[in-house]
Amino acid sequence: MKILYEDSMPYAEHFFSKVGECQAYSSQTLTPEALQDVDVLLVRSTTKVTEKLLSKAHKLKYVATATAGSDHLDKPMLARKSIPWGSAAGCNAIAVAEYVLSCLMTEYASDLPSLLTKTVGIVGAGHVGSQLDKRLKLLGINTKLCDPPLHASGDHREFVSIDEICECDIISLHVPFVATGEYSTKHMFDSKRLTQLKESQLLINACRGEVIDNQAAKTLFESGKAMRLNMDVWENEPTIDFELVPHCRIGTAHIAGHSLEGKARGTYFLYQQLCERFQLPQKLSFESCLPNADVIEMSQLEGKSEIEQVSAAILATYNVMDDSQGFKKQVKSAADFVYSRKHYAIRREFASVTLKTGNFPVSEALYGLGFNTIHK
Ligand SMILES: NC(=O)c1ccc[n+]([C@@H]2O[C@H](COP(=O)([O-])OP(=O)(O)OC[C@H]3O[C@@H](n4cnc5c(N)ncnc54)[C@H](O)[C@@H]3O)[C@@H](O)[C@H]2O)c1
Ligand SMILES: O=C(O)[C@H](O)[C@H](O)COP(=O)(O)O
Q: Which residue in 146, 226, 272, 285 has its CB near the most CB atoms, within 10 A?
């Protein structure tokens, strides 16, 4: 069985060589000819799986993406060709939740206690939204959830309308990109909703760029409207509107899900799918491929309140402002955007971090967020 996999998948060779003959490709140079003798195509979101790409793939039996989003797969076309597809739903939910927490600790750095009085409206209560909700509740921050498809399917959690979400102090978007239909998310935040945002509200988009009308956002900024936007994703990546970037308080190159664990889990989920689909034994474990935990010195936690300890630990582990500053300074073209994502200095999730905390008890919330601790 010949497996072709995108070269930005960590540990791909380690896992897929146990399933078949495997070879890496680059999304920038992949051609229909390269798929002629391929049985399985494994992609990340940077490969658009279109009719044209598969025009010579006559042996193809399975397509899967090592990502949560699957809007880069032409699913009606795959159905017409009777090619089943899979995704890695949930692989990077923790990474995105931690990205959002880093945004919040950065945005409220000068008045952390005020963060505890805010309400966060979460749009999309799937894998990412639920992980974020859990962490915010643990910190004592009020949340509201909006997810009409889940509500309609009988999910028993309490849901509110998008209009109620728009009243929240902080709004965090975690929906898939869906261009049409009852639950379309295209330009969910259009000119009208953006205009209604108050200066004090914070809007975070770490799902798909198309969920916010980027042109409308830029026009509003240029007309003098003050808005607090944190953007990890952009319309038309990698050919994004670079004039919008400086207006965003935090801007990053679609890396919210790029923790080492998030990307490796994506690869591992596809390995599991292939083993099941082709009835092969699953001999490899996920944990076996990961390096040892990072150890971070945190002795300055002493005497700090819970939210101060949490903020210090989060920012010492992952400070989104470092990524934002690098992005704003260095990424000026589509080629830069692609390059910076491909060479992203991959970060660890909190559960892979051990905090050296000195000789005093630390807040339970740190353990709740997944951190490990050791004393000096
Ligand atoms: N920036 C990143 O690196 C990154 C990482 C992971 C996921 N994502 C994006 O975030 C999306 C969400 O990820 P996930 O793993 O939580 O997916 P998921 O499928 O588990 O959850 C998405 C949720 O959105 C809900 N939803 C759909 N349409 C909606 C609408 N109109 N209004 C409100 N809710 C709606 C769905 O019912 C579902 O519960 C992905 O589809 C992907 O596009 C981005
Ligand atoms: O949908 C997802 O899982 C994320 O957007 C993911 O982080 C995209 O990663 P990429 O395919 O660009 O490596």
A: 146
Report field, pTM of the whole predicted structure over 0.95: yes
Q: Which residues contact 285 (CB under 8 A, 6 or more apart)?
A: none
- Residue 303: predicted pLDDT: 87
Q: Is there an atom of ligand 1 within 6 Å of 266 CB?
A: no
**Region 122-149 average pLDDT:** 98
Residue 349 has pLDDT above 90, yes or no: yes
Where does the pLDDT of residue 375 fall: very low under 50, low under 70, confident under 90, or very high at 90 and above? confident
Q: Quick check: helix, strand or coil at residue 296?
A: strand
Compute the distance between CA of residue 31 and CA of residue 338 in angstroms, rounded to an integer. 18
> Which positions are catalytic?
208, 237, 254
Tell the residue nearest (CA) to atom 9 of ligand 2: 45
Give the separation between CA 229 and CA 240, rounded to whole angstroms: 16
* Bond preceding residue 246 cis, omega within 30 of 0: no
| CATH class of the 93-251 domain in this structure | alpha beta
Nearest to 58 by CA among 82, 87, 75: 82
d(CA 40, CA 5): 8
Give the residue range(s) of CATH 3.40.50.720 domains in the chain: 2-87+260-287, 93-251
Q: Is 190 annotated as a binding residue?
A: no
The Cα–Cα gap between 144 and 161 comes to 9
Sole residue written with tokens 């760029």: 209
Give 54-106 pLDDT, tens digit per residue.
999 999 999 999 999 999 999 999 999 999 999 999 999 999 999 999 999 99
CA-based end-to-end distance of the chain? 52
Is residue 114 predicted with pLDDT exceeding 70? yes
Structural contact between residues 47 and 6, judged by C-beta atoms closer than 8 angstroms: yes
Ligand 1 centre and the CA of 298: distance in Å?
A: 34
- Give residue 376's pLDDT band: very low, low, confident or very high (50, 70, 90): low
Laid out side by side, the sheet with 228-231 consists of 142-146, 119-123, 170-173, 202-205, 228-231, 250-251
- For ligand 1, the distance from its centroid to the CA atom of residue 38, given in whole angstroms, is 30
